[in-house]
Write a structure and sequence with these properties.
12 strands; globular; 5-stranded mixed beta sheet; 3-stranded antiparallel beta sheet; alpha+beta; 12 helices
Length: 293
């Protein structure tokens, strides 16, 4: 990407290393703990109504909103590796590598949901309140419903956010084939399957969630993660439902940053190395890239 170091391509491990170094420096004077290992994860603490992993304005809005604040108790699976006391520090939104924390820090910031440029980029109406941890209830062949979560919902839009995660998860064939509308939405033979394991499971599930709820589906990821984009396009190619294709899109945090308030832009650049890049408004919905009003 034009030699810009902020968009140089990185693996998930390389990006974790980069963020670890950034946050170890930023956290020197902020209450925090870190995990053991060659690439420690920084886990921030809350003190006096402020939190090292969030801008103060975002964190206070999260704490004041019952439908948002319950996410603060979401378990951090690597808490056992903390040097401190994991019973006090184990929240996933405390971790510097958390895509959930990044998502909430951005969309809970005052004024972002009403910001015209943001809403235009996402194709949503201004002022629509975000919901985090949405359970779309995708129907299964058994008659039951899948209870897994999508990271965020805003009106007609479902959002899956990624940062340093290794990928979009894998799943056994018997798990994927249990979805009621799988063959109506996908050409299953075109999905990436190796030794009975489906790749890009979260994307498959997200598209099915959008189909079931008659919503759009957006993936937010880092511009430095070409591997995630490649997985996205592989899943997109397998979608045979012509009504679903225009409802699917991918957007980078760097592109989103370009339309965020200046204070948020500065925070993302310092904490994550996410520097604003302009969106390509010549792209269309049908290429699965982004939504444009």
């Amino acid at each position: 990407m034009n030699g810009d170091p902020s968009t140089a391509q990185l693996t998930s491990a390389e990006l974790r290393r980069e963020l670890s170094g950034r946050n170890l420096r930023l956290a020197e004077r902020i209450p925090h703990e870190s995990t053991y290992g060659a690439v420690p994860s920084v886990v921030y603490q809350e003190i006096d109504g402020e939190h090292g992993n969030s801008l103060t304005a975002s964190y206070r809005r999260i704490c004041a909103s019952p439908d948002w604040s319950h996410r603060l108790r979401k378990c951090y699976t690597a808490a056992r590796g903390l040097r401190g006391r994991p019973t006090e520090l184990g929240g996933k939104l405390d971790c510097a590598n958390s895509s959930d924390a990044l998502l909430m820090n951005v969309f809970c910031y005052p004024g972002v949901t009403c910001r015209k440029a943001v809403c235009s980029l996402l194709g949503v109406e201004p002022g629509v309140r975000p919901r985090f941890g949405v359970k779309p209830g995708i129907p299964l062949i058994s008659g039951r419903a899948d209870r897994t979560e999508i990271d965020m919902g805003r009106g007609h839009l479902l959002v899956e956010a990624k940062l340093t995660e290794g990928g979009f998860q894998k799943a056994r064939a018997e798990l994927v084939l249990q979805y009621q509308n799988l063959e109506a939405v996908f050409d299953v033979d075109e999905l990436s399957v190796h030794d009975g394991i489906f790749h890009g499971y979260q994307l498959i599930r997200g598209v099915l969630a959008a189909h079931h709820t008659q919503r759009s589906f957006l993936v937010l990821c880092d511009a430095r993660r070409s591997d995630l984009r490649e997985t996205w396009y592989r899943v997109l190619r397998a979608v045979k439902d012509c009504q679903m294709r225009p409802k699917m899109a991918i957007l980078t945090w760097q592109e989103l940053s370009s339309v965020l308030p200046p204070k948020l832009q500065t925070s993302l650049a310092e904490k994550y190395g996410i520097c604003s890049i302009p969106t390509d408004r010549s792209s269309t919905k049908s290429d699965g890239r982004k939504f444009l009003s």
